[in-house]
């Protein structure tokens, strides 16, 4: 009998896996896809996941450092991503217990839509204040795509932590 994800016990995440997933997300963000305004921020998604599930290892300090790295990678205003990442991670860790109460990724994704929009709005505002150039209206799709990708990202990052069923659990009654 296969237990649902909410009933399974998770093994602790290995620090190497956390770092590797964050580095892979940063590498994806650094891909030269041109000026695609609706590209979802996978670094933000990965950071949000780890801040939600491993708050003792991934906290606001990690969010700030990752945000500064993203600012350098995207050649944007220094602190633009860092501000958005810190605000989002603060919000996620503040309501962590409520978010984890919902067992499925789609339910959590609906709750994360507002903070994703807020983080994007902070980035747009900081960019607009520094350059007086309004972002493309297509950039409004990025938080929506991040919300749609949340269940997939959650499943991918939870997979190595799921405990395998014991012989007793596999045995029919």
From TrEMBL:
GO terms for biological process: regulation of cell shape. It is a multi-pass membrane protein. Pfam families: MreD. One of its GO terms (cellular component) is plasma membrane. InterPro entries: Cell_shape_determining_MreD, MreD_proteobac. It is found in: Cell membrane. The chain crosses the membrane at residues 58-88, 109-126, 138-159. Its main location: membrane. This is Rod shape-determining protein MreD. Belongs to the MreD family. Keywords: Cell membrane, Cell shape, Membrane, Transmembrane, Transmembrane helix.
């Amino acid at each position: 009998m296969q237990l649902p994800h909410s009933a399974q016990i998770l093994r602790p995440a290995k620090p190497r896996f956390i770092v590797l997933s964050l580095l892979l997300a940063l590498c994806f963000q650094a891909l030269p896809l041109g000026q695609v305004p609706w590209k979802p921020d996978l670094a933000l998604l990965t950071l949000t996941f780890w801040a939600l599930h491993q708050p003792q290892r991934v906290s606001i300090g990690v969010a700030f450092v990752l945000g500064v790295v993203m600012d350098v990678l995207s050649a944007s205003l220094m602190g633009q991503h860092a501000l958005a990442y810190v605000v989002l991670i603060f919000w996620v860790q503040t309501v962590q217990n409520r978010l984890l109460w919902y067992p499925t990724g789609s339910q959590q994704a609906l709750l994360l839509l507002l903070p994703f929009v807020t983080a994007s709005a902070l980035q747009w505002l900081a960019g607009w204040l520094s350059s007086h150039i309004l972002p493309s209206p297509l950039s409004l799709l990025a938080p929506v795509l991040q919300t749609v990708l949340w269940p997939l990202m959650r499943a991918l990052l939870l997979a190595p932590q799921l405990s395998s069923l014991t012989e007793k659990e596999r045995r029919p009654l």
